[in-house]
Specification:
By secondary structure, the protein is an alpha/beta fold. It folds into three domains: 67 residues, Multidrug-efflux Transporter Regulator, Chain: A, Domain 2; 47 residues; 196 residues, 3-Layer(aba) Sandwich (Rossmann fold), CATH 3.40.50. The chain is built from 13 helices and eleven strands. It has a six-stranded mixed sheet, sandwiched between helices. A three-stranded antiparallel sheet has the order 1-3-2. The longest helix has 34 residues. It is globular. The protein starts with 7 loop residues before the first strand and ends in a 12-residue tail after the last helix. 29% of the residues are buried. The C terminus is likely disordered.
Length: 344
Amino acid sequence: MTSSAPYINASEAAERLGISQKALRLYEQRGLLIPVRTAAGWRTYGPTEMDCATEIAALRALGLSLGQVARVLKGDPQGLAPALADHQKRLEEGVRQLSATIETVRDLRAGLAEGYPPKMRELRRLVRPAGEVIAAFDLPWPWGGERFELRDMRPLTYIIGPLGSGKTRLARAIAENLPGATFVGLDRSADDAAGARTRMEADPALKARVAQAMAWLVEDGASPSPALTALLVAIEEDPSGPSVIDMIEQGLDQATQEAVIAHLRRRGPGARPIFMLTRSSAILELGAVDPDEAIILCPANHSPPTRVLPYPGAPGYEAVATCLATPEVRARTEGVIAFRPQVA
């Protein structure tokens, strides 16, 4: 490496690519990208490395697994066919939704011209106001019955808080008050996976969706397990309403957790909204949270849950960061709970 070459560090490379530094390290671990090391051992990225990283990031954005990316980079383009088909499907669905909205606007304008003003519910079908409440309920114990309002629903919402903060009770309340929502508990054992397999056998379409998701996850480094099978069935079984999942990392190793969150992010617009409880930094990487994701923090002092922006300095950011742990730490503390007596 010459001193005049435009090499940049990992932080700047990740920022330019629009990905996280963890993603860069993952590309390196899988042998897809080899950064240049300085004399002190620091990773740097020059034009060649950045071109390669840009290709990888683009292929990942199309929904390719890391295994598929590796094959494409080696000259085998066959993995692109299903990815492009899925991408086309998502784009076409967006066009259909946009066309339907345009047609509605056209009809409302025609009615208005004839002296028939639109009703408020017709206008709400066009665009949901930012302040409109989609679910509201009184917070359960350990809170004091304060009113909680959910004002929007992102494709991915993380629910986080320290032990004993009430996050599971909040998640259950959200599931009970969101129309069509289902709650997925912690029991994702071998017995539960056996029941999941039985449901798949009774529903060939579900079985195909789970098999497709499992194949992608394995290509991305996940380890098949009863817990992963049960989780995928819970996510894929009823796509009509949101899913609320208790401790999504339960029973999953680090590589599997990273593959799961990558899979959930690649689903695209129109996918089933997912609320997930987590305390794993492999699932909730604060530097990788995008505008289609939200974080709800349940504070340790039982103040009402709040939305937290994923930026250093934002209210609640440090509390969220403190709650997160590496998958190894999460595995050591699995099953540990905090006990707080209920006040009569």
